From TrEMBL:
<feature type="active site" description="Acyl-thioester intermediate">
    <location>
        <position position="89"/>
    </location>
</feature>
<dbReference type="InterPro" id="IPR002155">
    <property type="entry name" value="Thiolase"/>
</dbReference>
<dbReference type="InterPro" id="IPR020616">
    <property type="entry name" value="Thiolase_N"/>
</dbReference>
<dbReference type="InterPro" id="IPR020617">
    <property type="entry name" value="Thiolase_C"/>
</dbReference>
<protein>
    <submittedName>
        <fullName>Acetyl-CoA C-acetyltransferase</fullName>
    </submittedName>
</protein>
<feature type="domain" description="Thiolase N-terminal">
    <location>
        <begin position="5"/>
        <end position="252"/>
    </location>
</feature>
<dbReference type="InterPro" id="IPR020613">
    <property type="entry name" value="Thiolase_CS"/>
</dbReference>
<dbReference type="InterPro" id="IPR016039">
    <property type="entry name" value="Thiolase-like"/>
</dbReference>
<feature type="active site" description="Proton acceptor">
    <location>
        <position position="369"/>
    </location>
</feature>
<dbReference type="Pfam" id="PF02803">
    <property type="entry name" value="Thiolase_C"/>
</dbReference>
<feature type="active site" description="Proton acceptor">
    <location>
        <position position="339"/>
    </location>
</feature>
<dbReference type="GO" id="GO:0003988">
    <property type="term" value="F:acetyl-CoA C-acyltransferase activity"/>
</dbReference>
<keyword id="KW-0808">Transferase</keyword>
<keyword id="KW-0012">Acyltransferase</keyword>
<feature type="domain" description="Thiolase C-terminal">
    <location>
        <begin position="261"/>
        <end position="382"/>
    </location>
</feature>
<comment type="similarity">
    <text>Belongs to the thiolase-like superfamily. Thiolase family.</text>
</comment>
<dbReference type="Pfam" id="PF00108">
    <property type="entry name" value="Thiolase_N"/>
</dbReference>
């Protein structure tokens, strides 16, 4: 089977909600990553086969097929098409999978892939049922099929995060310690300049502005998001953010044609589902499925990027897969670096690739929980 290669990966800095990137139109935010990607590589812009972008809640400034509109707003050629993917939080990871599949099938040779989200302008799930409290949309009400299968069980991320914590015996204090470490890792990475190569500065911002100097005492003082979820506070949850990211995926023929040096080979792509009531547990079974398909063991995986939607999600995954926390999200995760929904999958892969190169290690695995009880898994091999 033909191989798919990653030649480049970059991202904007992550802007905090109402922060430095909050006034930038979503199309221009996406255009920034695409323009930087094209400028950094020698492929003529009119020879790209497609642009595949992830984005969630494609309304307002994010509407109108933002993959296509971002490419055009970047001043890039009219002949290159674009399509936008919504697999909830895994949207841009799925975009990467679609690009890899296109290259592996032999139907395309050069694909720009990535994602964009401006959560300041388009808050999470604002496309669902206007008037619902933030984080508690209910698109399932009135569906006879859904009610017959799942009844009135809550489909709620905070409920799921608390349920996971309870099931795996993860205390609030342990989650806060995990969150503190995420911030400390991110701050160390920034101070050491570890993100400099992967970030394309924007609007005067050259570093992520989401990591915080915090303490366990400050975290302990926070009220839960709801009394029903006593362990779930803002401190142990991912931050809403604004960002974009882009990667260049090519075939072996394109490597030769444009004299490119591949940085990684896409070793495996898959996606699996789990119970939507548990909502956030799919990375566990999805990772097991990927290992079974590849014949790899977790001991073969040198670095993991798993999205820190909530601390309990990652901690449960680590328990079930018996994986070393010291090799997981080594430069911080979404608790510190933010979770700009449609951009997060591409951001995680960008950071994973650069970390494999810094550490000189071979295999990296990326996974993340997604709405509806889903999870993508991507395994790359550094070259």
């Amino acid at each position: 089977m033909p191989e798919a290669y990653i030649v480049d990966a970059l991202r904007s800095p992550t802007g905090k909600r109402k922060g430095s990137l909050s006034a930038i139109h979503a199309i221009d935010l996406g255009a920034h990553a695409l323009k930087a990607l094209v400028e950094r590589n020698s492929i003529p812009a009119d020879e790209y086969d497609d642009v595949i972008f992830g984005c969630v809640d494609t309304i307002g400034s994010q509407a109108g097929d933002i993959a296509r509109t971002s490419w055009l707003a970047a001043g890039l050629p009219l002949n290159v098409p674009g399509t936008t993917v919504d697999r909830q939080c895994g949207s841009s990871q799925q975009a990467l999978h679609f690009a890899a599949q296109a290259v592996m099938s032999g139907t395309q040779d050069v694909v720009a892939v990535g994602g964009v989200q401006t959560m300041t302008q388009i808050p999470i799930s604002s496309a669902m049922l206007a008037g619902q409290p933030l984080g508690f949309p209910d698109p399932f009400s009135g569906s006879q099929g859904w009610q017959a299968r799942f009844g009135n069980q809550p489909v709620n991320q905070f409920y799921a995060a608390q349920r996971i914590a309870d099931h795996w015996g993860i205390s609030r204090e342990a989650m806060e310690q995990f969150a503190l470490e995420s911030h400390e890792r991110a701050l160390r990475a920034i101070a050491s300049g570890l993100f400099e190569r992967e970030i394309a500065p924007l609007a005067g911002l050259s570093v992520d502005e989401t990591p915080r100097q915090t303490t366990l005492e400050k975290m302990a003082s926070l009220e839960p998001v709801d009394t029903q979820f006593p362990g779930i506070t803002a401190a142990v949850s991912s931050q809403t953010a604004d960002a974009s990211a882009a990667l260049l995926v090519v075939s072996e023929a394109a490597l030769k044609r444009y004299q490119l040096t591949p940085r990684a080979r896409i070793h495996h792509i898959s996606v699996r589902g789990d119970c939507p009531i548990w909502h956030l547990t799919a990375p566990i079974e999805a990772t097991r499925h990927a290992l079974k398909r590849t014949g790899l063991q977790m001991s073969d995986i040198d670095r993991v990027e798993i999205n820190e939607a909530f601390a309990s999600v990652v901690m449960a995954w680590q328990q079930e897969l018996d994986y070393d926390p010291a090799r997981t999200n080594v430069n911080g995760g979404a608790i510190a670096l933010g979770h700009p929904l449609g951009a997060t999958g591409a951001r995680l892969m960008t950071t994973l690739l650069h970390e494999l190169e810094r550490s000189g290690t071979r295999f990296g695995l990326q996974t993340m929980c997604e709405g509806g009880g889903q999870a993508n898994v991507t395994i790359i091999e550094r070259l």
